[in-house]
Amino acid sequence: MAGRKAFAQSAPCYGGPFLLCIQAGGGWDTTMFFDPKAPFNGVVLNKAYEQPASRGPFRYAPVDFVNGSFWLHSPEHFLGKYQNRMLLLNGVDMQTNAHPVGEQIAWGGHLSREYPAIGALLALKATQSVGASCPVPCAFLTDGGGYTRTSGLISPSRVSASGVRDLAYDNRFPGERDPNRLLRSEKTHQNIQKAQEKRIQLLSQQLSMPESKQALERYNKAMLDKSGLEALAAALPSTPITLEALRPGGGNAIDTLLQQTELALSGFRSGTMAAASVSLGSFDSHSSNDVTQRRLLGYLFVLLEYVLDTADALGLSDKLTVVVGSEFSRTPEYNSLDNGKDHWNTSSYMLFGPGIRGGRVLGATAGNQYPEHVNPKNPAALLSEESGGIVLKPGHVHHALRRALGLSEFNAAYGFVEDDISLF
Fold first, then answer.
1. Where are the alpha helices (DSSP H) in 208-271?
2. Of 262, 278, 295, 372, whose CB is crowded by the most CB atoms within 10 A?
């Protein structure tokens, strides 16, 4: 077994592509942003507005900016800045109304639990492309939300910015930023490392059971990969991002999410990460749908704006793919529980990044929020089912994502029932 080695480099090991998946956990209401609905057959499908509005090819739900917490952001404001960069997929049949299954198919593209999240596939390919001599220590960062199953292909990293610093600088007191304040002298620290390496080598010779040897190998690999965290720790901003910094007076409700996203962007910049998954939860609005959805969508658009603007500032925009989705949507009509809405299988995706032509809307839902059929040869056009039209499904989306990210090689092991149609 190889011992730990010092990590020093002038350029990142991994230079892209990168992937950020943003999960709207609980089931967002697509009629509250880019798939708005007017009354249908005399039934009001959304009480938050009277009629949808339009901007270019996009339709959106108008927002009253002076109404309480809704001022944080709006679909209209977001389109004003980013509509030319966004590909919107509407009318995507998630094939389920169950939360775990919806998350699984949203980010794995398949109903089988044996399928890994797409972030895991990119992380695996990234680590394979650079080799063991140049580690990607946090190849797949997750915050514990959404679907992040790796099927054993790679280990996910669940760590915070403060945790990264503590792991990278393990000879400092926890939380200590001063490089001169050490737990022990450098000589003593090096002697401890050498003793640990010798102990690992001795154990590897003594162990005979396969499971024990594999556990020791995983431990040693973790120790080796940890030596690459210095680059990530050095890339982190000295002052963590907050909602107050982005929207003065906005509170601190998503500070943890913003800082996890900041960690992901720093990881991409330093070449220590390939993919990340973050989640904004509580969209499961079985009561008070309009108020809940407006508030959370405001947070979501603030987060997404921060991601796109920061990616531009860091020079990542030509390498970073951003996908925003949810496990499903909300029912067309309100329930009897204080104007709530329940689970509805038809949803949407928002996508940004290289190879994804923005300023377009593919797919649609009818006035009753049922998915429309599209022409598989031209998904921008509707086509009846009798004439060969199809309903968009997550498998179609993941086919296109894998192609854009250079992951089509995994189709042999993790294929889709759906055909590969030209979405991007």
1. 210-226, 229-235, 243-246, 255-270
2. 278
